[in-house]
Amino acid sequence: MQKKIVLDTCIVKDLLKYNKDKKQKVNNGIDIKKVYDYITTMAYDGVSKCYLTIYTFYEVLKDFKSDFSKNVFEFYNLLYPQVVTSPEIRKEFDDYDLINLHLKSRNEQERVLSNLRNLIADKIGGFMTEIFMTMLNIFIGLLSISLGNDNTRGKQIKTTLGDINTTIYNSLLDGVRINVEITKRCVVDFLNNEYIKFMKLIALFLQDLENKTKVSYKNINKLLIKLIETLKNDYYKNKNFNESYDVFQSFYKWFKTYYTEKYPQAIENDVKKEYEDLIKNLVRSVWTPLEKDVMNEYFYGNIQKLFFRVLEPTQVKNKGRDATYGFGFDINDIIDMYILRLCFKGKYLKEDLLVLTSDCEMRKRIDKFLPSSKILYEKFGSTKS
Q1: Contact (Cβ atoms closer than 8 angstroms) between residue 289 and residue 304
Q2: Are 139 and 296 within 8 A, CB to CB?
Q3: In which band, very low, low, confident or very high, does the pLDDT at 228 lie, cut at 50, 70 and 90?
Q4: 3-state class of 382 per DSSP?
Q5: DSSP H stretches of helix in 145-246
Q6: Could you give the dihedral angle defined by the CA atoms of residues 72, 74, 79 and 80, in that order, rounded to the nearest 10 degrees?
Q7: Backbone phi, then psi, for 82, in 5-degree steps?
């Protein structure tokens, strides 16, 4: 019996095009005709023939502009798609809204598309806000290690951080909502630019704290209040940034001074080991481990590398991937990984779903985290040399 598989956006768009013109196409080693024949000869079980994520549903549906109902009918009639969601998503979006969408009024169709767009923007915006805040919280954790407990100041900082979190989320939500209507690439570019601006702003205020004041909870909170005011008023767009200021290098130097004063007999290797342990603990304290190792490995490893690069003095600095101002890893990967999470074995899935894509980078992550999907690439691979 043929097994239902998850089709990525690029595969779905290729199948729809092939369905219209029947012109042979091989996309990064995937023979689209083979996939087409597999789907069209599959027995319909009354539910679906394949799975699509909500992101793929939206990416495909939003491109149906001239004759929406006719295009949706052909799309459904070819693939009989079933949406892959999660318990969290189902609380916010009724996937039954996607059933027989071609038979509904245009107003209802627009409502469903709008809800899908808002849901995707909410998930991506919220997820990226967590990442932005992770970096900020790690910096605060580093600054705080030489300070004692201060419950009053701690509550003030927590309140200010909540305000920063809301401001970042609202900004990202609006931006993602606008860009997701265009392309995924536009979403990635927007998020990357926002992260770079945010990191530059953090660098600017940390440098100000380093140069003008002593480290204290009071001054950290003042820094954060200034940061939130700047974010809310978009002042950061007119800020002049010192591109030579390396936040991570500055933190390591500061930590080394703090540690050697506390432990005068410490050697360089002791400092490095203590710094690595501190960063690992801070990352885990502000980024709660998730249920599947894909995110844990991906984010813990890459966030830590941003801080650990300063321990490799011989490494040539690539300005295109600058440690302070660059993200350190591809935001496109983050979106892909978030999408793949829906396909993992869990409470509502008895086994990992098989995922087919013609995106080479996403394929690498599928090979690593959903290795059972390998059989699809053998089955649908092109025989051409």
Answers
A1: no
A2: no
A3: confident
A4: coil
A5: 151-179, 184-212, 217-232
A6: 60
A7: -120, 135
* CB neighbour class for 323 (10 Å; exposed up to 12, middle 13-18, buried from 19): buried
Which residues are CB-contacts of 84 (< 8 A; sequence separation ≥ 6)?
A: 6, 51, 52, 53, 54, 342, 343, 353
Burial class (CB in 10 A: 0-12, 13-18, 19+), 123: buried
Of all residues in the chain, what percent are helix, strand and coil, respectively (each to 5)?
A: 65, 5, 30
For the stretch 326-363, pLDDT in tens is: 655 567 777 777 777 777 766 566 778 889 999 888 88
Measured CA distances, 83 to 113, 324, 342 (Å) = 14, 39, 10
| DSSP type of residue 361 | H
Exposed, middle or buried by CB within 10 Å (0-12, 13-18, 19+), for 86? middle
DSSP 21-45: H----EETTEEHHHHHHHHHTSPP-
- Residue 43 to residue 132: CA distance in whole angstroms: 46
Residue-wise pLDDT for 282-339, tens only, equals: 877 766 655 445 556 666 667 777 777 777 655 545 544 555 556 555 677 777 777 7
Q: pLDDT of 67-110, one tens digit each? A: 899 999 999 999 999 888 766 677 777 888 888 899 999 999 99
**Exposed, middle or buried: residue 88 (CB in 10 Å: 0-12, 13-18, 19+)?**
exposed
The Cα 323–Cα 193 span in angstroms is 15
DSSP-H helix ranges across 24-150: 32-40, 54-61, 68-79, 87-90, 106-144
Cα angle for residues 301, 188, 361 (degrees, 5° grid): 60
The residue assigned the tokens 């930590």 is 255
Residue 31 confidence (pLDDT) above 80: yes
Radius of gyration of the chain (CA): 24
CB 347 within 8 A of CB 211: no
pTM of this structure:
0.81
Is-contact 18 32, C-beta < 8 A? Answer: yes
Give the DSSP H/E element, type plus range, for residue 15: helix 9-21
Residue 380 has what pLDDT? Answer: 92
